[in-house]
Design brief:
The strands form eight sheets. Strands 4, 5, 6 and 8 form a four-stranded antiparallel beta sheet that branches. Strands 1-17-14 form a three-stranded mixed beta sheet, with no helix packed on it. The protein is globular, with a radius of gyration of 23 Å. The longest helix is centred in the first third of the chain and has 21 residues. The N terminus is likely disordered. The protein is of the alpha+beta class and about 450 residues long. The chain folds into two domains: about 220 residues, no CATH class; about 140 residues, Cytochrome Bc1 Complex, Chain D, domain 2 (Orthogonal Bundle). It is about 25% helix and about 15% strand.
């Protein structure tokens, strides 16, 4: 009997040691758990991460969708519906714009994801400094009136297209603390070290926070990011409008003037823009922000191919992971972020995510020459593109002109020269394995 009790005690001891390995593995000493992920398949209903209430799919024959009145107090399905709506002139669309709705640019492979749509920016160099095109650097592709469709002159020598980015999982990115991003960049080798920029948070009276959204990391909160897009991509003003697209003192608070073939025209009121500002009371912008915040993180390919498993370690050894940071942990629930305007919720707090980006600006030889809010030194810097979910797109880099990972790697120069050279020094099989790893993300 005594022998049996000793054996039983030993079994219980071993089980106690093994139990942590069976549970979600935390970051040592911090209690983090892996964020919920989506399988990146539109046929699977797995986008919702638990932030706020889920609600039920909207049927407009029964009831209209209701936007939130504050961050987190709406319903995911209502927010998703609003995110997917198209706007018209009566809603304040335009008078110049790039898209009629969020989902038009954020749809593949699921609502909130990628698309092939692009925006266009332009300017010129004066005394060695980038200067916006007259009427603003953002030159819209569409208009509500043919008289104000935008055109630039040959004086604008700096021109750049930018492809849209995915918003899936961005709620977790919003909840990464400033210090976490700063410590990560500080640990990078000096030659590859990224640049983080403090940018204004619109809903916090322009308090500053480390930028992380957009190709120039020009926004730090999802509410600011959504207000920026509503204004600058659709021409709809709101109390959350922000995001400078010209040097005009009013930039970010009203539609830009129109850069037409006859010159710059003020098209911000009648007859071109008949809806009084603000054209949205803020409800739509809150819905956009909370929809993005409530999406799960992009998950890995399942099952993971054998080649991708072999390429995993190579991603580190050649130096890709220096800038494409694999893992972050979000701030703890209850932490105030965004200048005190948002409290990290349980669904997003202490979550381990794998975005494969440091969200910092780097010069890797592919910069577009455009300056936004990080100063003239940022003209040829771009934010490290997050690689999570990259298997869902086939157009790469900021202009979307590359269609293979190998060609994309060959464009890396400047701060990424060593990583590119290390990749090229691999055997053909190893290069193929590393590409397979990237396309499993």
């Amino acid at each position: 009997m005594l022998k049996l009790m000793k054996v039983l005690a030993l079994v219980l001891f071993v089980a106690a040691l093994a139990l942590p390995m069976w549970l979600a593995k935390p970051v040592e000493g911090q209690g983090g758990t892996e964020a919920l992920t989506t399988d990146m398949d539109a046929k699977t209903d797995d986008l919702f991460n638990g932030f706020g209430a889920r609600g039920t799919p909207v049927d407009e024959c029964v009831a209209d969708p209701q936007p939130p009145t504050a961050r987190g107090n709406g319903r995911f399905e209502d927010n998703k519906f609003i995110f997917s709506e198209s706007e018209g002139v009566a809603d304040g669309l335009g008078p110049t714009y790039n898209g009629v709705g969020c989902v038009e640019c954020h749809q593949s492979v699921d609502t909130g994801g990628f698309a092939q749509d692009m925006e266009f920016r332009a300017g010129h160099i004066t005394n060695g400094q980038f200067v916006d095109a007259p009427g603003g650097q953002l030159v819209h592709a569409r208009g509500t009136d043919s008289d104000i469709v935008e055109h630039i002159s040959t004086a604008e020598t700096e021109k750049a297209f930018r492809i849209v980015t995915s918003a899936i999982g961005d709620g977790f990115v919003e909840c990464i603390a400033n210090g976490t991003l700063q410590n990560n960049v500080a640990a990078q080798p000096a030659a590859q070290r990224g640049t983080l920029t403090n940018v204004p948070v619109t809903e916090a009276n322009n308090a500053l926070r480390v930028g992380r959204f957009g190709w120039k990391a020009q926004q730090a909160s999802l509410l600011s990011f959504a207000g920026d897009a509503y204004l600058n991509e659709m021409g709809i003003t709101s109390k959350f409008a922000g995001g400078r697209s010209s040097n005009d003192p009013a930039a970010g608070t009203e539609e830009n003037p129109c850069t037409t073939a006859e010159g710059v025209r003020d098209c911000t009121g009648p007859p071109f823009d008949p809806v009084a500002d603000p054209e949205d009371d803020g409800g739509d912008v809150l819905a956009f922000a909370d929809f993005m915040a409530a999406t799960r993180a992009p998950g890995r390919q399942n099952p993971i191919p054998a080649a991708a498993t072999r390429g995993d370690a190579l991603f580190n050894s050649v130096g890709c992971a220096v800038c494409h940071t694999r893992t972050f942990q979000t701030a703890a629930p209850g932490t105030l972020i965004n200048g005190g305007a948002f409290t990290v919720p349980n669904a997003l707090g202490n979550k381990i995510i794998h975005p494969f980006s440091d969200f910092a600006l780097h010069n890797i030889g592919t910069g577009d020459g455009i300056v936004q809010n990080a100063g003239q030194g940022s003209a040829n810097q771009m934010r490290t593109a997050p690689l999570w979910g990259i298997r869902a797109r086939n157009r790469f880099m900021h202009e979307g002109l590359n269609i293979t990972i190998t060609d994309t790697i060959q464009l890396h120069a400047g701060q990424a020269t060593a990583a590119r050279n290390n990749f090229n020094a691999l055997s053909a099989q190893q290069r193929s394995d590393l590409v397979a790893f990237v396309l499993s993300l």
